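Record 1 of the preview.
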Amino acid sequence: MPVDEYPYYRVSATGNVLKIFIMGIDPGHGAEIKWVLVNAYPEFDGGNRLRRVVVMLTDVSDIRCADEQIRRHLEHLTALVDVDRAINFSFDLELSMTTLLTHVIVQLNVDAADVLLLDPTSQTLKYVAGRGFHNNLTEHKIQYLGEGYAGRVALKCSVIHIPDLEKEHNLLLDGKFQKGENFVSYHGVPLIAKGQVVGVLEVFHRTQIVRNEEWMDFLKALAAQAAIAIDNVTLFDDLQRSNRELAEAYDATIEGWSRALELRDNETEGHTQRVAYLTVKLARLFGLSDAELVQVRWGALLHDIGKMGVPDEILFKHEALTEAEWVVMKKHTVFAYEMLSPIRYLRAALDIPCAHHEKWDGTGYPFGLKGEQIPLVARIFAVVDVWDALRSDRLYRSSWPVEKVREHIRSLAGTHFDPHVVKLCLDSDLLAGQDYER
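->
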């Protein structure tokens, strides 16, 4: 039925106004698709009898195409925002790429897609994520720079389009990979971040479909998003590695300082390492975070660093110290503060070197702090320090048995030590588990 006849019969039958869009093909313009707006309304004579039906046809193809283009652009922008959100809120590259590839397949109407990451050391492209494949062979795909389609894309830093893989005889596509997939065409886009190729986005088609410039532009936009994601994750990984290496360097330096201190006094060999180990173990029971425990360990390793400022004739004197000599000896906690406080990364570790000789009843030094005025880690360390000293052999005495040390520490709860810290430390059995055999 001709387009103008359908509204006539519809309005004639119902007597109602009709307004519809009709899509058809104009054979006179190369089978071009046309959209027509049909307005039809009845006209009646004085007796309410239908006299005629007026039908008006308006070509609205341009308007409909504009509407469709706006809708597609909106979908593309929404997809880019979604990908951008995935990139910014996660440093999981596989998750970001999976989100991106989902939009690649849906928005670009392709059958399969994958992302290959360039390893600059081995000059190879390795699989990161993929969607739409019938087998898992793509997950094991590795291509050298310049080899295969992806290798050529990365080497030439340009888009490659293979419209007919059958015609190309798949010379650059692994036959095993192609088996069972039935791909007929291919697009490969380089992923470029800061002027450097970081990978390749590949899309595959199982049917021959003509792609326009708008489609290609959106493919490149998605490739740009993929490059940003890879660059972000690379920067984050590099930063994490740098921080880890820096922390390891700090730790090695501090351990070197603590060993240098012990070289001055063979009598206390191994003491620093043991008290650092035990203090961290016990501090964990008090709910300290991993970051705080790093500072606890450093503070324990450096607890006696202030003694570098004490003259040897006082530090190693076997007889009882005079009152004046004790004044100098007690300054080692102040010396520790003066030595460590200028070092920014050690400021959070100062509590133990500066306050481990403070006492619960306020009779300690250097400041006479009392009760919970004393930092918690210093209160924990004080128990560990005395435990290790009494459990170790010294020139002037043999080590004490475990039970004798336990009773001694318990007797000092409320005067020298924090009673709560004493109870938790002794009840945990972590102290008794330490090996003091030499």
